[in-house]
What we know:
Oligomer: single chain
Radius of gyration: 34 Å
Strand order of the largest sheet: 1-2-3-4
Largest sheet: 4 strands, antiparallel
Shape: rod-shaped
Amino acid sequence: MKESKRPAEIWTGARGVRGVRGQLLVGAVLVLAVLMIFVPLLVQWAGQESRWTVKQQKSSVMFALADAAVDRGTWKLKSATSTYAAASVGTVLAGYNFDTVYTDIEGGTYRLRFSSGPSANQVTILAEARDNLTKQVRAVRGVFENVSLPGPMMSGAPSGIRRISSAPGAPFTPRATSIFPAGPPPNTIPGNTRSKWSPALPPTRATPTV
């Protein structure tokens, strides 16, 4: 016949079970405390990342609109010799004096203005773009000069051709092969137009009217 456990042994076993349960409870509390600290931080970080991504996308849209405005202005200047000559002396051209808002690109609107200078025989294009949703504005300015090409360049000779570089801070580089950044270091590639790009203007500089 087996002997029953003595009261001391029974009490010791119960205390052991309670001790294990207590340790598990402490561990669970610690895990919950860690989650309560880090989960909100992760949620906040994810939200900030999402907002930053959306902001970058909208900024890209505005710069694309400004790029399109400069492309439109470049096309207009190159459409006829008389057009460039008129713009270089400050003659106002309809549609290119902030008097027309273009909506041909989805996501925003843009407008542009021609002005003479800053030097003789140069034309400045100021392009402004506005996002339809946020109403934020970005602007880009380009200075164009009509130049004649040296004989070696017309014949395709490599003499005088140097590397192409963009002005520091410029939001984009011209796509057309006849457009290239000027200034140090000098750049020369085939084409009949020279451009000098400046960084984007502050968004509060002007607001297109609709």
